[in-house]
Amino acid sequence: MAWRIVHIKEGDVLRLRLDNLEVMKQDNKVFIPLSDITMVVLEGNRTMLSTKLMSRMSQNNVGLVICDDKYLPVGIYLPYGQYHHYSKRVIKQSSWSDEQKGIIWQEVIGQKMHNQLAFAQYSGVKTERLELMEDLINDLKVGDTTNREGHVAKVYFDSLYGKSFTRNDDCLINAAMNFGYAILRSCMARIVVGNGLVTMLGIFHRNEFNSFNLVDDLMEPYRPLMDCWVNENVLDDKEYLSYESRLKIIEFMNQKIKINNKKMTIDNSMQEYVQSFISAIDETDPSLVIKIGLNNFVGEES
């Protein structure tokens, strides 16, 4: 099973060599089996890729992420049509009713909100703030028609970083979270496509200009886990997101979480999660969605 996310800062040439990714930089060469790779993340402005390599990456369901000059992922290259019953899956996805989507969204976003509450508690947030978050979560309705998620997020970020903090601030916290969420999004997109789903057709997100509505839906429970990882491993006295910090954020995908009493990597848990989501929405049974819990992540990293 693939497990590596390959981060390339300044490679000169990437090409295929006997089912391996060959990375050339000046006179140095590194070979990595494509079967080991889930994703390649590229930074810098001088890297060249061969078409043959990109074709074989698609066949092996390897995603490619391109970063801008601020090191944030801005482009994703994903496999096309590799799922064996792609048309059947897409037809079924397009027929999901509003009722089905609303019921499953309540479960998905509820998991995120419970994880935010758990991280706030883990971080020592005051009891009255925790109780406020808990009251909002208990009022969550099908489809989150009253936007409890938005209200919980406001209390969550205010409690962790102060009432003056906003997600638009130019600061290390936001830079780290933005990079982390982009990595989550890229990994989830690869898995969604690998399971024959159309990324544009979400169950809650439905922006006509967003090609990844379903991805943005399904990554929600993982966001507080990334927040936890960033806070414990990245935030320090630096004023910018260093290369070492970006590598540390990428390491999150190989950390362990316990799912149904089995330890697995975050990346592998996403595969389980998406498959359980498909079963849940097809059967309109939210109990089929596996639980992605912060409490099953904290302490399971090693």
Could you characterize what this model shows?
This protein has 302 residues and is of the alpha/beta class. Helix content is 45%, strand content 16%. It contains 10 helices and 10 strands. The chain has a 4-stranded mixed β-sheet with strand order 1-5-7-8, covered by helices on one side. Strands 4-3-2-6 form a 4-stranded mixed β-sheet. A hairpin with a 2-residue loop joins β9 and β10 (262-265). The model has no long low-confidence stretch (mean pLDDT 91).
Outline:
This protein is of the alpha/beta class and 302 residues long.
> Strands of the biggest beta sheet: in what spatial order?
1-5-7-8
N→C terminal distance:
19 Å
Class computed from helices, strands and strand pairing: alpha/beta
Mean pLDDT: 91
The low-confidence parts are: none
Strand content: 15-25%
Shape: globular
Which series of helices and strands comes N to C? EEEEEEHEEHHHHHHHHEEH
Q: Report the major sheet.
A: 4 strands, mixed
Report the oligomer. Answer: single chain
Question: Could you estimate the helical fraction of the residues in percent?
Answer: 40-55%
Count of helix runs: 10
**What gyration radius follows from the Cα positions, in whole Å?**
20 Å
Number of strands: 10
Features:
302 residues, alpha/beta, four-stranded mixed β-sheet, 10 helices, globular
